[in-house]
Automatic annotation (TrEMBL):
Residue ranges of domain HTH IS21-type in the record: 33-96
One protein family per Pfam: DDE_Tnp_ISL3
Lineage: Bacteria, Bacillati, Actinomycetota, Actinomycetes, Pseudonocardiales
Protein name: Transposase
InterPro entries for the chain: HTH_IS21_transposase_type, Transpos_ISL3, Transposase_DDE
Amino acid sequence: MAEAAGKEVAAHSHCWAGATGLRQERLAETTLQRWQQIHDLLDAGVGLLDCSRRLGLALNTVKRYARAETPERIQRVPKYRPTLVDPYRDHLRTRRAEDPGVPITQLLGEIRELGYQGSSNLLYRYLNQGRHLDDQTHLSPCRATRLLLTEPQNLTTEQTATRDRLAAACPEITELATLIGSFAALLKPADDNDDRLWEWITRARAMGLSHVHSFTRGLDQDLAAVTAALTLTHHNGRTEGVNTKTKMLKRQTYGRAGFKLLRHRILPA
């Protein structure tokens, strides 16, 4: 479920992206051209496999572009990492709003007085990317997904506010947040979870979330095991943990010790 949620959040980046928006580089232009080529062929009645051959693309790539209703569904927000400039974002945004032509060297001197210890190149890049225009720290698809998957009581006040803005970004993300919450409730074993699971699958398939649809098909293929995990209180977690620890001990001594030492290490574990 976490993997499907991550793909859905990334696919709707254009809905919740901040002022930094989507990438507007050469890669974005290539994505737009490729999307247009594939959809022109599909509108002309050409099959997916034939599109793949004509354009020299992998079949899965063609399928991914074919599923996207707009080119923005393919594009992704840039994955910016936290920088030393982030604590001074509000100051930079205020100064740029007051005087759009203020020199960057002057801004550098001002934030140095506030405690900035980074380089001038870092500030230049930060401003050119428009990251000072965001109201909050830049959010990557991975971090956005983590906010949706975390239990609300484990989030800080700021994270809760960010999660609420994210969940209200578009109808699809709102539906995804609802599905995540209801699926998390199923993880606590109960006798009626098998019926609730079917209700969840039916509701998920009624929504326009293609990656979640793929997840539900995976549930169908192993439904007996999934139902047992959601309804029975006992599990094989302890056994799997011992297996994992045994494999770790074996790797640590590989090529340096024999069976006798391995046995002595495993028995106390």
